[in-house]
Amino acid sequence: MGAHVAGGSAIRGSRVGAGPMGESERGESAPRVRVGFWCANGHDTRIVFAHDVEVPETWDCPRCGLPAGQDQQNPPPPPRTEPYKTHLAYVRERRSDEDGAALLEEALQRLRARRGA
Fold first, then answer.
1. Using one digit for the tens of pLDDT, what is the confidence trace for 56-112?
2. Could you tell me the strand order of the sheet in which 44-50 lies?
3. How many angstroms separate the first and last alpha carbons of the chain?
4. Which of 53, 87, 90, 111 lies 20 to 30 A from 74 at CA?
5. How many CA atoms, within 13 angstroms, populate the side-chain half-sphere of residue 74?
6. Distance of alpha carbon 80 from its chain centroid, rounded?
7. Burial of 46 from C-beta contacts in 10 A (0-12 / 13-18 / 19+)
């Protein structure tokens, strides 16, 4: 019997055409600009943008989530968080106690009329 030879590629884990890619194969990179953003906590974030795009005024800080601006001395203030409101709190913003009492009385009259009481 002959020697048993393993089949398959001599270079395992690679594919046809795999190899180091250089600028000649990929093409030239688009011109870029690096922009710094600073949040209220003093975190510095550098984002790379294409040279021909409009850079946003603010960027969310990847470390703390606060908005970050391009002026290191005057970063945007943290957003004001509104406390959780219940459904009743929203209703009270729209209606006065007198309006609520009138609506309740109207609903009770409809219920009584339906029941025949």
1. 999 999 999 999 999 999 999 998 888 889 998 888 888 888 988 999 999 999 999
2. 44-50, 32-39, 67-69, 58-60
3. 105
4. 53
5. 1
6. 17
7. exposed
82 Cβ contact list (under 8 Å, min separation 6) = none
Strand segments, DSSP code E, in 1-117 are 32-39, 44-50, 58-60, 67-69
Whether pTM > 0.85 for this model: the answer is no
- What does each C-alpha distance from 7 to 12, 15, 16, 92 come to in angstroms? 11, 16, 17, 78
CB-neighbour burial class of residue 37 (10 A; exposed 0-12, middle 13-18, buried 19+): buried
Joined tokens for residue 46? 């550098």
Q: How far apart are CA 53 and CA 55, in angstroms?
A: 6
Determine the 3-state secondary structure of 35 from DSSP.
Answer: strand
